[in-house]
Design brief:
The complex is a heterodimer of chains A (475) and B (450). Chain A is of the alpha/beta class and 475 residues long. Chain A has 14 helices and 13 strands.
Chain lengths: 475, 450
């Protein structure tokens, strides 16, 4: 079994990260009734004997003493991290896993990346090494950050770079929260585009998330609950947005519901690596199957179902509905419609009581309405994990490598150009040591190239399929 | 003679477990329908082939379990131990932590060389426990990373370390509409490599077995467990002891050798398909009766029309009229030409069954002598509660279309260079792909021109 380390950077990164750890504990508590520190737990948690301060016996059969998250919490202002450390999750984090400063990055990518990056490099490397040493077999780093600010965006991508240099064999999965059009941070387009270049070059897989989509999902759920249309009551802890049953149940903050969705995304992504199933899907398989060309590693995700009713008997019609929903526009975590764009590859990770025949039936059913690239007509990767998420009997995570990410990138570029043409706020960046105009031009050029790659693929959509002629063998 | 089984990857280990379970429960069953002497002979032969006994009397499977991540092996070991009637040797397994990531190159070029010594040591130990080693059976899928890539590497090692032993690869072909996106690449690389090292490849296609589950076994929500159990039943029907010579009273002492001798007359033709009838749900068994002529008729038509099972057979397909050459354009389409066929009959009244219809020269390629191309094994001992059971192992054009389809899709993807970077980072270059494509196009061509 492998381990993963979560690196949460900046305010958004840490808030999402906090929800992740909370829900992870909840999930493992539901499965692990005997209080034994098993392989599944060890993928994200260390078992520590708090008296000695060293790791307790790491062998599977040991009892759980004190669980510590395999995480690094980084923020250049103290507010968020302090709150976490004073909150109900304080025991999950080791004080040696934190890197904080006081003044923040002022929503400036250059401050995060160049200034703090340089300043904290040694510190970060040392803490990463320590965390890695505690792992038997480290497989993956999960970075959680936002793109629009200064710390998550700048320092977060600095850490990404660092991870590639120091741990080249370990996968780097990045969950990036992209700013929406009405973002109140004026310089968010700069920060995002500068960060995109780093993601293009150094990430193995990126899972983009947009606040607008999370917000829409939250609203949709609230409407369904309040409208009373559901007939029976909804199981509270099954809501993809809920913290019910987790450590922190009081005082749900405004972003909590949205952040829970992202936390659930990460839990579902790693479920098959942690729990057993008839067709396992590990993290390295996700990267292998969904990334046909190195730079096209942006995966659109969707989670279904959003909630479960208290009905125990789920007819298989509902099961099929789950599959259909995964492809609908309003379940995607970014503002995109994969159904009308071109699929390069698609992965379906099913959890719970679902069999291979259900999976196949639904793939057959949905295939005709989806457009796949000519050289990957049957581009499906599937996984079956036996353990469902808390409150559900089954669930589905769909990951798509689809050209529908293109509009998000194009919009980002447009917003960037609007500012850049007028050289607005540029001086705040250029006054930082190490920052030059060329950083901007290179970043936007990298983004343009990426958009162009998607354009070329889109151009093949619906066109005539000429199959390349096969090798001829002399008889 | 004993057979050592190497189970590779998730699929290999899941199926391997079901196979040993099926062999054990068949052997212990009281449904033999034959004399006690016959039954004892059968039991002893099966034990010698697949199990050794430890002091407690519990049979231990002659198997080595290999996987690059621990979850499946630990499940397999504990399920077997819980059964109470057999188990695995808990020392005979090798696993790592990280898996092969569905990457053939990772399995073949990285895990293979790195773990060669440990794995081959385990194989050597199992081989030494055999009084006489009859050969190896490997169980693997070709869609993933470990079974396929590491499996190909281990097969090569087996060939190098045991040059005189027979090697049979049992390969599972994935569903046509993906389980793994790069499954066609992995398949092409696996098949081309296995072709060079193994004596024969015995194939099960997930699509075919799935149909059997859906239409014959009436299973509503088919799970991989159901699929694996059907596969295990079919493999059991081939591997359990049978009499090879007419009137011979001993069970074959060299099962793999006999299999190769009857079915692989030429090294260019190594692809074996497997059919078994009847297949019905277990609770229908007491209420069903079958007649041998009916079973044989269906089995023959399944061969000719390339049907996966006894329902939905195309009865219109007929062999070409006598006197037409094999290259004649009058040869009917969809007709499945054979190189060699083996029919195994188990159960009541097997000695009276007329198999002349399988010796019809029009079934075979013109350069073959039907007397040599067809063989039959029989045993009065019934298998797995079926009063009558017939299996067909066929070296024919069964797999031509699926193989062609896989190569076609892989070539299509290769032309766009998609995913190639994932293989080159572990040392498999474009030339290696081209070599594999060439090998398989050659195989396709050979089978097409039968």
């Amino acid at each position: 079994m492998t381990q993963s380390v979560v690196v949460q950077v900046g305010q958004c990164g840490n808030q999402v990260g906090c929800r992740f750890w909370d829900l992870a504990l909840r999930e493992h508590a539901a499965v692990n009734k005997k209080g034994i520190y098993d392989e599944a737990l060890s993928s994200f948690f260390r078992n520590v004997d708090t008296r000695s301060g060293d790791d307790g016996p790491r062998i599977c059969k040991g009892k759980i003493c004190s669980l510590k998250a395999r995480a690094l919490l980084i923020d250049m202002e103290e507010g968020v991290v302090n709150e976490i450390l004073q909150g109900p999750l304080r025991d999950v984090f080791d004080s040696k896993q934190l890197i904080t400063d006081v003044s923040g990055s002022g929503n400036n990518w250059a401050v995060g990346h160049k200034l703090y990056g340089y300043q904290y490099r040694e510190n970060i490397v040392e803490k990463l090494r320590k965390t890695a040493e505690h792992c038997d077999c480290l497989q993956c780093f999960f970075i959680i950050h936002s793109m629009g600010g200064g710390t998550g965006s700048g320092l977060g991508t600095f850490v990404l770079n660092l991870l590639e240099d120091e741990f080249p064999e370990v996968y780097r999965f990045v969950t990036s929260v992209y700013p929406s059009g009405e973002d109140d941070v004026i310089t968010s387009p700069y920060n995002s585009v500068l960060a995109m270049k780093e993601l293009n070059e150094h990430a193995d897989c990126v899972l983009p998330v947009e606040n607008e989509s999370l917000f829409d999902i939250v609203n949709k759920i609230n409407q369904m609950i309040n409208s009373g249309k559901l007939g029976s009551t909804v199981k509270q802890n099954s809501l993809v947005t809920s913290s019910a049953g987790s450590v922190k149940t009081l005082q749900e903050k405004p972003f909590d519901a949205m952040n829970n969705i992202v936390a659930n995304l990460l839990l579902n992504l790693t479920s098959s690596a942690r729990f057993e199933g008839s067709l396992n899907m590990d993290l390295n398989e996700i990267s292998m199957n969904l990334v046909p060309f190195p730079r096209l590693h942006y995966l659109v995700s969707s989670l279904t179902p959003l909630y479960t009713l208290a009905d125990v008997n789920i007819p298989s019609r509902r099961l099929d509905q789950m599959f259909s929903d995964a492809f609908s526009r309003d379940h995607q975590l970014i503002q995109a419609d994969p159904k009308h764009s071109l699929y390069l590859a698609c992965a379906l990770l099913v959890r719970g009581n679902v069999q291979v025949s259900d999976l196949r039936r639904n793939i057959e059913r949905l295939k005709p309405s989806l457009h796949f690239v000519s050289w990957n007509q049957e581009g499906w990767k599937t996984g079956l994990c036996s353990v469902p998420p808390v409150g559900h009997s089954h669930s589905l995570l769909a990951l798509a490598n689809n050209t529908c990410v293109k509009p998000t990138f194009i919009e980002l570029k447009e917003r960037f150009m609007k500012l850049y043409k007028k050289k607005a706020h540029l001086h705040h960046y250029l006054q930082i040591d190490g920052m030059e105009q060329s950083c901007f031009s290179e970043a936007v050029s990298s983004l343009s190239d990426l958009i162009e790659e998607y354009n070329e693929l889109d151009a093949t959509k619906g066109g005539p399929r000429t199959e390349p002629s096969r090798l001829k063998i002399a008889v | 003679m004993s057979i050592v089984t190497v189970q590779l990857g998730q699929c290999g280990n899941q199926i391997g477990h079901e196979v040993f379970h099926s062999l054990c429960s068949d052997t212990r069953g009281t449904h033999g329908l034959c004399s006690r002497k016959e039954n004892r002979s059968y039991r002893d032969a099966c034990k010698e082939r697949f199990f050794w006994e430890e002091e407690s009397g519990v049979p231990v499977a002659r198997a080595v379990l290999v996987d690059m991540e621990p979850k499946v092996i630990s499940q397999t070991l504990s399920m077997a131990a819980r059964s109470g009637c057999w188990k695995y040797n808990h020392q005979s397994h090798f696993c790592q932590k990280q898996g092969s990531g569905n990457n053939w190159a990772n399995g073949y070029s990285v895990h293979g060389p790195r773990h060669k010594e440990s794995i081959m040591n385990l194989v050597q130990k199992e081989a030494e426990k055999c009084d006489r080693l009859g050969g190896f059976v490997t169980i693997m899928s070709m869609a993933g990373g470990t079974g396929s890539g590491l499996g190909a590497f281990v097969t090569q090692c087996l060939r190098d370390d045991f040059p005189a032993s027979f090697i049979l690869n049992h390969v599972v072909w994935p569903y046509g509409t993906g389980e793994v996106i790069v499954q066609n690449y992995n398949s092409v690389l696996t098949l081309s490599h296995l072709y060079r090292s193994a004596d024969a490849l015995l194939v099960h296609e997930n699509d075919g077995v799935h149909q059997v589950c859906a239409q014959l076994m009436n299973i509503k929500h088919i799970s991989f467990r159901d699929v694996n159990q059907v596969i295990a039943h079919q493999l059991g029907s081939v591997f359990q002891p049978a009499h090879t010579a007419e009137g011979g009273s001993d069970y074959s002492r060299n099962p793999l050798g006999d299999l190769m001798e009857t079915l692989v007359p030429h090294p260019e033709f190594k692809l074996l398909g497997l059919r078994n009838i009847p297949q019905i749900p277990e609770n229908s068994l007491p209420y069903s009766t079958f007649s041998w002529p009916g079973l044989i008729k269906h089995l023959r038509q399944m061969l000719i029309a390339n049907a996966q099972m006894e329902e939905g057979i195309d009865w219109q397909v007929r062999p070409p009229p006598p006197g037409s050459s094999s290259h004649s354009t009058k040869k009917p389409l969809h007709f499945n030409t054979s190189i060699a066929n083996l029919v195994i009959l188990r159960g009541k009244d097997v000695h009276r069954v007329d198999l002349g219809s399988f010796q019809d020269p029009s079934l075979y390629a013109s350069w073959l002598n039907p007397q040599d191309a067809f063989n039959a094994w029989r045993t009065p001992r019934a298998f797995n509660k079926y009063e009558k059971s017939a299996s067909l192992v066929s070296n024919s054009q069964f797999l031509l279309k699926p193989l062609d389809s896989i190569v076609g899709k892989a070539w299509n993807m290769f032309a766009s260079k998609a995913y190639i970077h994932q293989y080159t980072r572990f040392g498999i270059e474009e030339e290696d792909f081209l070599d594999s494509f060439t090998t398989l196009e050659q195989v396709i061509s050979s089978y097409s021109t039968l």
